[in-house]
Amino acid sequence: MKRFIKPSFYFLFISTLIMGTTISCSSNDDSGSDDSGSDGKADYALWLQLGSWPNTTQYVVGVDDLSKGSVSLVGNGAEVTSKADYGIIAKNGFYYYPSTSSNFGKMTKFEFKNNQLAVVKEVPFTYQKSINCYTWVDDNTLLLFGTNGDGNKVLYTVVNATTLEIKNGELALPAIPTGYSSYNQGNIEYSNGKIYVAFSNMAIWPALAESGMNIAVVNYPSFAVEKVIESSDADGNGGSNMWMPTSCTDEAGDVYMMFFAD
Hints:
Elements: H1 9-21, E1 24-27, E2 44-52, E3 55-63, E4 78-79, E5 89-91, E6 94-98, E7 106-113, E8 116-124, E9 130-138, E10 141-147, E11 154-160, E12 166-170, E13 182-191, E14 194-202, E15 213-219, E16 225-231, E17 234-237, E18 247-249, E19 255-257, E20 259-261
Antiparallel strand pairs: 1-2, 2-3, 3-4, 5-6, 6-7, 7-8, 9-10, 10-11, 11-12, 13-14, 14-15, 15-16, 17-20, 18-19
């Protein structure tokens, strides 16, 4: 890990605006055919949201070309509201959805064919109450990070993408300092046997959060915290949700994370 990037507030605002008003596109890595092909897979699955919060409806529809043309939901696509909307994770032609709701605690693997979202496999998923971010160790190992209901624990889940076998655990972060009540856990990235976990310490409103930012360097697969890098320049996660990534790892294994500037 070599670099942490601090974006301007303007950049974060524009990123949020784009993600909030346009469709998100996921290309099926193993597909090159259109809906009429032998496998029924389109090159792209577009995830659309209609309406204004809280009265919103989500759909997914397949297309083969994002550079021209238009798409209609009239007699087309599939409604996915509360099934696989916010937080959908795309990988190698499949879609993974960790639902943490009290009435539907399940991890589901989907396949999108013939403009229908079909369940491939589904297992109970009740360990985490809130998932903030995810990363892939390899093509078959998905890591999910988030907090418990009180926010005073950072939890992780390791998912086998083929079998949906799940391993849960708690990250042994430094104790929350006196005067603060919870963790604000944001970006995570995996690189060369290490997981980089961003977090800060929060207070009960209207008290302010602790200044600065922390990056826990975690060994994989033991999940032992090797060290914590403290930064006084960064002050808050650039993002902590499942639908707008604010970190990445390049081909050289260098990790990039966006933070708010102090």
